[in-house]
Amino acid sequence: GAHQADTFHNDLHPTLKADFVMANPPFNISDWGGERLTDDARWKYGVPPTGNANYAWMQHMISHLAPGGKIGLVLANGSLSTTTSGEGEIRKNIIEADLVEGIIALPSNLFYSVTIPVSLWFISRDKKQKGKTIFIDARKMGEMVDRKHRDFSDDDINKIADTFETFQNGELEDVKGFCAVVETKDIEKQDYILTPGRYVGIEEQAEDDEPFEEKMERLTSELSEMFARSHELEKEIKERLGAIGFDIE
Q1: Is the dihedral angle over the CA atoms 230, 236, 239, 242 positive or is it negative?
Q2: What is the architecture of the domain spanning 18-200?
Q3: β-strand 179-183 against 132-137: which pairing, if any?
Q4: What confidence tens digit (pLDDT) does each residue in 91-145 have?
Q5: Could you tell me the CA-to-CA distances from 170 to 9, 101, 155, 179, 217 in Å, in that order?
Q6: Which residues of the chain form CATH 3.40.50.150?
Q7: Where are the alpha helices (DSSP H) in the chain?
């Protein structure tokens, strides 16, 4: 447009209908002027609270979706479970409208500006799998590339993308601790909370066929070695502190 837009109060493209929307809006914005928009036509699923713009962003984007449009949206994890100021009711209405195609929980440290873990929402006007949502828990994926930042490898990204595509094709089988296909009626039983961990469960542990006596003997031996090393380190630390004039009894 000719000038900077204000998404909520001065939408420069009010009639735009998009096939695809990808967004990472500011999280939990409290001063978005919601008190001036309580009767806005965009709030089809409920009036968002004036103290948090998360569901205002979401509904603004939904209002601009074409009949077969899709949204990829990054939001703070609180949006998955909050019930504050009517947010739970808005989430319920969006779920019951069969718009939420998938939720992916991400690990912390993926962003350079914030360290908190976030979630990806995938919202679709015309889901291939009606009445179902895919949940993916990717919190254990990725590798720390330095002390503060984590990256996904191409294999990580492909695994998530392939899982989502397999779901869309109706061929996905649940994997404990990673992914689950959930019907809307089962999301209702969870009070419309969308936290993936509630649905994917805990990863199954590999079978342990080590005999109990052997395991206890091995663990006891390892623990004894740790204790011995601990005493050595304690002695070394005391000697070094003593050398610079600090004696520890």
Answers
A1: negative
A2: 3-Layer(aba) Sandwich (3.40)
A3: antiparallel
A4: 999 999 999 999 999 999 998 887 888 999 999 999 999 999 999 999 999 999 9
A5: 41, 13, 22, 14, 49
A6: 18-200
A7: 54-63, 87-96, 154-168, 184-189, 197-200, 212-243
